[in-house]
Amino acid sequence: MPETPPEVLVLDDDPIAGVQLASLRDGSTSPEHFRHHARRLGSMLALRAVQDLPGAPSTVASPLGPAPAFGPGRTVVVVPVLRAGLGLLGGVHDVIPTALVGMIGLERDEETLKARRYYFKVPPLDGAWVLVLEPMLATGGSASDAVAALDAEGAEQVTVLSVVATQTGIDRIRSENPGTRIVTAAIDPELDDNSYIVPGLGDFGDRLFGTPH
Ligand code: URA
């Protein structure tokens, strides 16, 4: 039986994830390469998030007869927070190809810095394991809003996958939504006046899609 991971798992001692994170942080990485590294890191975060996913035995017909098989015992639903979360989606599907997909659109009001939900479409979540893709966990406001909405739909387990988080963001999600797990590649020390993570990696969505900031 795989070990239950800690509720907050930081991959900062994982040199393989570290290589991907360093390339994402590097300001000279092009959008093309940024997408590549985001996808790879998405796979690594997802594998750690589901390391204790309950399994279900079944049987498969090999050419020489029935063979035992083993697969996910829960529906896994992956929910990118638009638009930055899309950068991790391909990597999650690389390792969990059967994961269903929901989408949440949250916009940051540049004056109040609060999240406004403009889109929400998810498959049935009753009993599902949900992976929320929110690469930059800054104040935690948008992720916490997303987790609350998904909890309300009956998810059994919600895990937020992030690339860079702050302790403030982590604390906010977990105090507003007890039981939520977080898997992140790093925790950075501070936020600037615009709620960007420092040193962070800049605006994840802009770097992913090549839009000017
Ligand atoms: N969103 C980003 O893309 N980057 C940050 O540093 C914070 C929020």
Tell me what you see in this structure.
The chain has 213 residues and is α/β, with parallel strands linked by helices. The protein has one domain (8-54, 71-209): Rossmann fold (3-Layer(aba) Sandwich), CATH 3.40.50. It is built from 6 helices and 13 strands. Strands 1, 4, 5, 6, 7, 8, 9, 10 and 11 form a 9-stranded mixed β-sheet that branches. A two-stranded antiparallel ribbon has the order 2-3. Strand 2 (55-62) and strand 3 form a beta hairpin. The longest helix has 19 residues, at 31-49. The radius of gyration is 17 Å and the shape is globular. The model has no long low-confidence stretch (mean pLDDT 95). The structure holds uracil. Uracil (URA) binds at residues 84, 136, 138, 196-197, 200, 203-205.
Feature tags:
single chain, 213 residues, alpha/beta, Rossmann fold, 9-stranded mixed sheet, two-stranded antiparallel sheet, binds uracil
What is the count of helical runs? Answer: 6
Element-level helix/strand string? EHHEEEHEEEEEHEHEEEH
Q: Largest beta sheet, briefly?
A: 9 strands, mixed
Catalogue the unreliable spans.
none
Mean pLDDT: 95
Radius of gyration: 17 Å
Number of domains: 1
Briefly, what CATH class? Alpha Beta
What is the end-to-end distance?
46 Å
CATH hierarchy: architecture: 3-Layer(aba) Sandwich
**SS-based class:** alpha/beta
Tell how many strands the DSSP assignment holds: 13
Q: Provide the β-strand percentage band.
A: 25-35%
Q: Which fold name fills CATH's third level, the topology?
A: Rossmann fold
Quaternary structure classification: single chain
Bound molecules: uracil
C-alpha geometry:
globular
* Helical proportion, percent range: 25-40%
